[in-house]
Each structure stands twice: as C-alpha cells, then as structure tokens.
Design goal:
80% helix, elongated, 127 residues
Length: 127
C-alpha cells in the first residue's frame, strides 16, 4: 500500500467518524426540546471539513480525477452545517447565561443534522 493510499484510508475513516459524530447525536436529540449536546456535533463538523479537504488533496496529489462540481456542493453543505452548529452553540450559551430557554438553538441543530444527511445523499447518489 502506497503512502497516498494509507493517507486516503486514514482520512476516509476520520471523515466517516466525523459524519457519525454529527448524525448520531442529531438523531438522539431530534425530539429533545432543550439541553442539547452540541460538542460532538461541532467536532464532527470540523473533522468533516478538514478531512474532506484532505481527501480532495490526496486525489489531486495522486493525479486522480476530482468531480469539482460535486466537491463544491459537498463543501458548501459541510460549511453550512459547521456554521449552523457554531450559531447553535453561541445561541445556547447566550440563552443559558440569560437564564432563558436554550430552545433558540433547536432550528440550528435541525439545519445541521439535515445538512449532514443531505451530504450523505449527495456523496452516494451523485456518481
């Protein structure tokens, strides 16, 4: 196995684990109305963006074809997921500090979870 193949395998494993860190907590909390746990989702979103860039870089270095349109769509969705989670964390912290309901972060959690699921659909369905 070449170093590029090893790098690709490691990045792909981390990419899938990042995805699981977003979708898993989302599914577990989808019916929850408050006290959301965003830390694993936020870490997963960061891992998704970083490893996604790394996977594309490995393909480029190896002179393999890259579907730039697909990668652009996936990256845009990944950034939306990351931004939604950052907004959710900020709103939750502000609500808790103010002593009000942290329910204001609920729509942002849904955007992040639905976006991650959409990214899976794009990854699998766009050939």
């Amino acid at each position: 196995m070449s170093p590029l193949e090893i790098a690709r395998a490691v990045l792909l494993i981390a990419h899938i684990l990042g995805l699981a860190a977003i979708i898993g907590p989302f599914i577990l909390q989808v019916r929850t109305k408050h006290d959301f746990r965003f830390a694993p989702m936020l870490i997963g979103a960061i891992v998704q963006v970083v490893t996604g860039v790394g996977l594309v870089a490995v393909r480029e270095i190896g002179d393999l074809d890259v579907n730039n349109a697909k990668i652009g769509v996936k990256m845009a969705i990944a950034v939306i997921v990351l931004v939604a989670l950052i907004v959710a964390v900020v709103r939750q912290r502000r609500a808790v500090a103010a002593g009000t309901s942290d329910r204001v972060s609920l729509p942002w959690m849904h955007v992040a979870g639905a976006g991650a699921i959409l990214n899976v659909i794009v990854a699998v369905a766009w050939v």
